[in-house]
Amino acid sequence: MDDSGFYDFKITEANVQAEWLEHRTFDVAEESSKPKFYCLAMFPYPSGRLHMGHVRTYTLGDVIARFKRLQGYNVMHPMGWDAFGLPAENAAIKNKVPPARWTMQNIEYMKTQLQSLGFSYDWGREFATCDPEYYRWEQWFFTRMFRKGLVYKKSAWVNWDPVDQTVLANEQVIDGRGWRSNALVERRELAQWFLKITDYAEELLAKLNHLPGWPEKIKIMQRNWIGRSKGLQIKFARLEGSAIDVYTTRPDTLMGVTYLAVAPQHPIAKEAAETNSVIAEFLTACNQVKMAEADIAKSEKKGMDTGIIVQHPITKEPLPVWVANFVLMEYGSGAVMSVPAHDQRDWEFARQYNLPVKQVIEPDKAGECDLDRSAFVEKGRCINSGQFDSLNFEEVFDAIADLLQSNGLGERQVNYRLRDWGVSRQRYWGCPIPIIHCDACGAVAVPDSDLPVSLPTEVEFDGVTSPIKRMPEWSKTICPSCGGPAERDTDTFDTFMESSWYYARFACNNLRNGMLDDRAKYWKSVDHYVGGEEHAILHLLYARFFHKVMRDQGLVDTDEPFENLLALGMVLQDGAKMSKSAGNAGDPQHLLDQYGADAVRMAMMFAAPPEQSFEWSEHNVESANRWLRSKLWRAVILHSSLGPVSTLDSSSLSESQRDMRRVAHETLLKVTDDYGKRLNFNTVVSGVMSLVNELQKFNDTSDQGRAVVDEALKIVVLVMSPITPHICKELWTKLGLGVIEDAEWLSIDQEALRKRVVNVIIQVNGRLRGKLEVEPGASKDDLILRAGELENVEKFLKDEKITRIIHVPDKLLNFVIA
RNA sequence: GCCGGGGUGGCGGAACUGGUAGACGCGCCGGAUUCAAAAUCCGGUUCCUUCACGGGAGUGUCGGUUCGAUUCCGACCCUCGGUACCA
C-alpha cells in the first residue's frame, strides 16, 4: 500500500472494514435533516455458507445503499436472518445437531462472510427470526388476526410418507416417493390454520396499479396469481342428495355442457367410491401424486364415470358426473362443467373417453372453427342454444345469469384464483402456533401475558416426528378461558410468516414491549427492496398482505411495504439456480481470500444487469482484481506522485484537454443515470473502464492537463466507490479529498458536455456507406453536398434516382433510391 | 399443463426513444519488456470474400411493418424462474 506501486487488497480491506466497525459508520438513527431512505435486500436463510446468489443480492443492495448515501439520504440498510426452515431439520438428522445450534453456528459464520464483503450494514439492527423476542410479536400479531376473524381452521391435503409417518414438503417428494424412505407418498387430510388473504384479494390486486417502482413483469405475475374473474356459480341438481356447485367464467357455453368433472378429493367422488371399488382404486391412484399443481397438471389426464347423474339447470337433461385427476379441489368448488366444444382440455378429455361434443358457439366473423381438430375457445355467437341463439357473450351471460338467479340455480360471482394461506406446518423448527385446544372452549388464543410460546431448543431430533409433538410437558397446559386441562397446538407456522413483516421490525428491533413503534412509521415503507425473482409471487404477496393487516391494526401507516423493487435474475450454476438444496454451490470464500472483496463485488456487478439471469464464472474475479490494481490504483498513484495540482480553468483548455474533460463528464452523466434510474451497474463498470482507458491515452502532464486528470480521477473513484468501496476509500484519501463516506455526489458541468464535432453516418437505402465528421447542427443541404463527395457514397448513388432523403440531425443522412 | 422472463462473436455482455450491431471485459493470436518467467504494456480478433479500398451475410427460427428492425407485430423452437409445504 506504499506509494511506490503495489496494491495489497488484504491490508486495505482489513483496515477499512476495521474502521467501519470501530466508527460504526453505517449506524443510523431516526433524527436527521436528510430525507430517509430504507434500502433492504431480502435476508438470507442461514444455510451454512454464502453462495454467489447471496453475493449478487447483497452487493446490489449495498451499491444502492452507498449510492443513496452519497446522494445525501439518511440511509437505513439493515441485515438479519430468516432462521426457521426445513434445511435445519435436515441438517439435524444428518449431523445429529439440534436445529437451533446448527442455525446459530451458520449465522455466526455467514456474518463474518458478509462483513468480509464490506457491506454497509447497520449491524445494531440485526436479529434472527428464531429468537423468541422476534417471533413472540408474530404470535401476538397472529392472535390479533385470530380475534379479527382473519384466521380459520379447515382440513387440507398434505403429502404423507406412510413409512416415516411424516408430512413431506413438495421438495421432499421425488418422483412420487419420499426422499428418505423411498415410499410412495399418499395424500392425507389434516386440520390446519388458514389466513384469509382472500379478504384482501381486491386490494392486493388494485394496489398493484399504485406501484410504479415495481417491474411490470412482477405485477403481471401477481395479477395472474390473484386471478380475479367474473362468472356464475351454478347448481346442478341431483335426483337425490345435494346439488353440485360449479363455477364458470363461460356461462355462454352452458347449453353445450355434456358432463361434469369433479376433483378426486370431492365429496361426490368419495361417495361414488363407497359403492364402487374401481372408482375407489382410481381415487387412491390419484392421491398418489404429490400435492403440487405442476405435477397434477402434467400427469396424464384420466377420469372415470362416477355413475352419478345431475340435471342440466336449463334443459333439465341428465348429465353424467365424471371424476378427473386434473380438476383441482382447491380452486372454485372442486367441480367444473365440461364443454368439450369450447374448452380445449374438455375437448381432449371428451375425445379420450368418447363423450359427446355439442357446439353452441359459432365465430362472429367467418372464423376458423373445426371441432374435429380442436375446441373453439373464442367468444362468439350462440347457436343450438334455444332461446339464447344469436346472442353474443355479454348478452347470453346476462340472460343466463338472470334466469338461473330467478329460479335459484345460480348467481353471479367474482372469483379469485388466489387461495387462503395455509400456515400450519407439522414441523419442529418454526414458530409455535399460539393456540390452545380445549375440549370445552375449542381453540383459544394464548393471552398476551403468556407470550411468547417458546420453542424448546435443546431437543433430540430424529427427523420423523417433531419433538414438540412428543413432549407432553411442553404441550400440556391449562385453558386460558376455563382453566381446565388443554393442549397446545403442536404445529408451527409457515416460515413465510417471519419474512412477511421482518422489514418493519428492522426499524425497532430492540423494542421489548411491542411489535412495532413510531420508528417504523419514520422509516415507512422500504424505499428499495432487492431480491431474487423467485420470490415474485409468494413472499412478496404475503408481505403485502401482512402490511395491509398491520396498517389496519394501526402499526404502520402506509399501504404497501415495498415502494421500489429490484427483482434479480438467478445466478445459475450448470444451468440451474444455486440454492440450499443444491448443496450451497458457489461459496465465494476462496475468491475473497485470493482476490479480495472489491474484486468479487466488481466481478459480480460487471457480469450482467441485475434483472438478468446468468451463469456464474469465477474467472471474472481475477480480471476485476487485475483492473483494480493495475489500472485504477496505478492511475491514481501515478497522478498523485507528480505532486500538487493547480485549479482547473475550464476556459483555458486545449482541444484535447476539453475532449478529455468532456469524456469525464459524459461518463459521470451516464453512470449517474445507470445508478439512479436504470439500475444497470454492469454499464457503470464498463463506463468507468472506458474513462480510465482514455485517461491512460491522454498522458498530458501540463499544468491544466493534470487538473483535468485530477477532476476525472475524482469522478472515477467516487462513482466506483459504491461497487468497490475499500480501494476507493483509500484512493479518495490519496487524492486529498477526506472521508469518502461523507462525500457528496458530483455535479455535471453542462458546459463540459458540449461537443466540438459530431459523427454523421451516411446511408444509401438504410445501408451504411460512409461517415462524416461535422460541426454540430450542420444543415441537411450542407450534409447532402458533403456526403455526395464521398467516393463510396457517390458509387452507390451514381445513375440512381433519389426518391427521398431522410435526415436525423447530428446523426444520420439516408438516401433512398428506387 | 398454466403464468412470467430470456435467446446477440469462442465466452459474459453493450447498443437507453426504430438510426454505425458487437462498447467494456474475458479468452485466443501476434509483438514489446525479461537471461528466463511472472507481472505489465502495445496491436489484432463476428463470419465469408478481397493484395487492398471495399463488398456480402449476420442478433434463436420463419414471416410481416418500415427509407432503416437486436429494438415493433404474428407464428414457432429452445431455455430459465414460479406453480401455493425449498426459501
From TrEMBL:
ATP binds at K580. It is found in: Cytoplasm. One of its GO terms (biological process) is leucyl-tRNA aminoacylation. Its main location: cytoplasm. The keyword Cytoplasm applies. Residues 658-780 form the Methionyl/Valyl/Leucyl/Isoleucyl-tRNA synthetase anticodon-binding domain. This is Leucine--tRNA ligase.
